[in-house]
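Quick check before the chapter quiz. The format below is the same one you will see on the exam, so make sure you can read both the input and the output lines.
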Amino acid sequence: MRPFIRSALARSAELTRENRLVEGMEMGESAIRAATEDEHPEIQAWLTDHADDFTGRNG
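Here is the expected output.
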C-alpha cells in the first residue's frame, strides 16, 4: 500500500478516536477510493490489524 493511503487510514483512526466520526469516515473512504485493486487486500488487512486504533481500546 502506498504511504499516503496508510497515512490517511491512520489519520482516519485518529479522527474517529477524537469523536470526529464523519471526518474520519470521509478520510478513510477517500483513501480506499484512491487505492488500486491490488492494494485492497493490504488495506483490508491493515484495517483488521488496526481496528483498536479506531476505538482507543486494546484487545
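If your answer matched, good. The chain has four helices and no strands.
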